[in-house]
Task: structure prediction
Amino acid sequence: MPEKLLEVKNLKTYFALEDGGWAKAVDDVSFSVAKGETLCIVGESGCGKSMTALSIMDLIAKPPGKYMGGQILFHGKDLLTLSEKEKSSIRGNRIAMIFQEPMTALNPVKKIGIQIAEVLQLHEHMDKRKAMEQAILMLKKVGIPRAEKIVHEYPHQFSGGMRQRVMIAMAMMCNPELLIADEPTTALDVTIQAQVLDLMRTMKKEFHTALIFITHDFGVVSEMADNVVVMYAGQIIESGQADMLFERPLHPYTRALLASVPFIDQDKEVLHSIPGTVPEASKYPEGCRFAERCDKCHPECRKKEPKLQEQEPGHFVKCFWAGDEYCQ
Amino acid sequence: MLNYILKRLFFSIFVLFGVATIVFFLVRMTGDPVAIMLSPDATQEQIDQLRASLGLDKPLIEQYLIYLGDLIRLDFGRSLRYADSAFTLIIERLPKTLMLAGTAMFISLCVAIPTGIIAALKKGSIFDQGIMALSMVGQSMPVFWIGILLILFFAVDLGWLPTGGYGTVKHLVMPAFALAFGLIPLVTRLLRSSLIEVLETDYIRTARAKGFMPRAVIFKHALKNSLLPVITVVGLQMGALLGGSVVTESVFAWPGVGQMLVQAITNRDFPLVQAIIIMLSAAFVFINLLVDIIYVFVDPRIQY
Ligand SMILES: Nc1ncnc2c1ncn2[C@@H]1O[C@H](COP(=O)(O)OP(=O)(O)OP(=O)(O)O)[C@@H](O)[C@H]1O
Ligand SMILES: [Mg+2]
Result:
């Protein structure tokens, strides 16, 4: 068993609603990431992927957000119990994060170089000139040409792909043990997407960084993941090693997601899409939350909620249907 | 950039021409200056003589053309009252007005910027709500009323400060604070709302993810972005202060341009009124240009 770097245990992140109810964005989620490993979190829009990631960084706006329970153990220490100062010394230093929207994630009024270098100034108390030299080196590493010039320019002069490279450079400055990437390629063109994925893989190898990669694209998962967590409506409905999941998807939702991916090496005639939408985080039904959209739905599914159970070593499913036969 | 500035300066000539024209005809609607310059029992001959010597006997259009011709040569005419060049009179008083406006603005920013930041940081707290309530009250109190209250309290009751006039720092305190009173709530509220907006942006989340503490985030990433609307308003207010301290200058007998303007209007001192209005407008136009130039340094996305 490789050493656990991050262990999320029974995390619940809710959002208070105006009407007094709660939106259960993350509802009892547990997973772990080992050193150097890549974990992909997959799921449709609104299923709680970003909120899980932001909870790890403790960047949830509170209020309306609130941790209703659980632990986030980093090297065995619960991040949620740390002081703001201790958390700040981990953020950007030992755990870094990249966001979905490269166009708005950089400060428009600060030079690129300064935005990268300030991470070193903050965490390693490096002086500005040395930090700037490091920033230039890192920009070259992430494949930005003319890095010496670009450090003096502002974000608005760059394309989305370039900005995402800058974000990656920024995240890698302190050589983090864990990098969380929240749909880093979703906003980019397909060709740029491939380049950025390539870059992330290279950087990960070079820095031995563990990676939590959030995406809704199983195509990306197949390229990146060691382990996969599939989320639906704030919960994990299936998890396991990537090859297991691709070979033997057990949850009807996972199967449906896989059926909707256009893999290049398979000649699929029909692409499936899952009917219906994710239920709202404040109005989850009793029983299985996927029941409404499930083609295997049994009357029992609407009454009782299945537990996340280990079907084969390391492969967990939250469904009464493990595989094909109905079992309880 | 230089091109842009030159273009703006070129267009401001038309603005000032418009102002000069409007003020020329407006002052002439206020009445006849000769009527108050001579005693009521002056003979018709004396009246005609004075009118001719002031050039007021010529047809209006001719007067207007002469006036424009003088303006092009930067000749603002001579004050009817003080028999001195209007330009010299204004230049004498301008430093006093600038001193008052500058001090008021300085006090306002010193108070409003920290308060606005704290209010934004502690949004929704008792402190924030208190600040917001106070600034509502502050903004709804007219400056002359504040001025009178200040005089009653600090000058009449306590006797700490002179009721008005010019000379020492003590003279400056009350009018400057009276002016600042209206500005502080304005800037505080503006900075607060602008900061709150900025604090919700993605790049602030990035800054937090980099490990900056909330306070460092404000100073390193949020403040500069939130200053743009504040700069605009401070610029406009500075322009307004130059002419708008008319009331304050009158209440506190501060011998600035505003007070002179009031006197000039009462005296029907046409050339002086015209000169003051044109120069205030020029200052306004200039400050606006300055604000637009400052923008470029604050926000690199803005380019001319
Ligand atoms: N401030 C909030 N108040 C109420 N509900 C919220 C709030 N923020 C998030 N949520 C809810 O949390 C749920 C999960 O959102 P999240 O952003 O994590 O989804 P996601 O899986 O990242 O989706 P996407 O692929 O679109 O990024 C959503 O259903 C949303 O309604
Ligand atoms: Mg998301």
The CA atoms of residues 204 and 218 of chain A lie 20 Å apart.
